[in-house]
Design goal:
Length: about 180
């Protein structure tokens, strides 16, 4: 009888644990879920695509580059999915980013279009940076930059160098054409 009670308690606790874990959607799960949906544009970009390593970088910029792994891009054009799908997906992404895991750095825009930048991790050791932009006429775009213990100050230095580079040769052109 004691064994049966122990088994019931064990399975009850396991059910509560797994149910609690599945209630909150993660950005990773969201991206994986949308990978098979042909209404979305879904691209994974290795950092090597941008050919930044050929630039003359200082030590902090090299450290920043080495801390980057890849960029996930997810886009939804309104003409592909319709306004209802756009509104639904926009709200799902906002809810994920409002979870306690992400810290919003900046948010700007209006009711028609806007963008936000959030990060996951500690202030001095960021694991991912997320840019989310939406436009009620064009659609939405989500960029997730993955890395290991990225230092925001070093990343900012690296971005200033990258901005001065000829973007056409760095792989940016195809990324920017997603929402045209």
């Amino acid at each position: 009888m004691i064994k049966i009670i122990q088994l019931i308690i064990f399975f009850s606790m396991a059910a509560v644990f797994f149910t609690a874990c599945n209630n909150q959607s993660s950005l990773q799960a969201y991206l994986v879920d949308k990978r098979e949906n042909n209404q979305f544009i879904n691209i994974d970009l290795p950092i090597s695509l941008f050919k930044i390593d050929s630039l003359a970088l200082n030590k902090n910029q090299k450290n920043a580059l080495e801390s980057l792994r890849k960029i996930n891009v997810l886009a939804l054009k309104i003409d592909k999915g319709g306004k209802a799908l756009y509104d639904s997906e926009k709200e799902k992404i906002k809810q994920i980013l409002k979870s306690g895991d992400y810290h919003e750095l900046v948010k700007f825009g209006s009711n028609q279009k806007g963008a936000s930048v959030s990060y996951y991790g500690e202030e001095e050791s960021v694991d991912e940076v997320v840019f989310f932009g939406s436009d009620n006429e064009k659609g939405l775009i989500l960029l997730r930059v993955l890395g290991d213990e990225m230092n925001p100050a070093h990343i900012a230095q690296l971005l200033s160098v990258v901005q001065g580079v000829d973007k056409e040769n760095q792989g940016f052109e195809s990324l920017m054409s997603l929402m045209k």
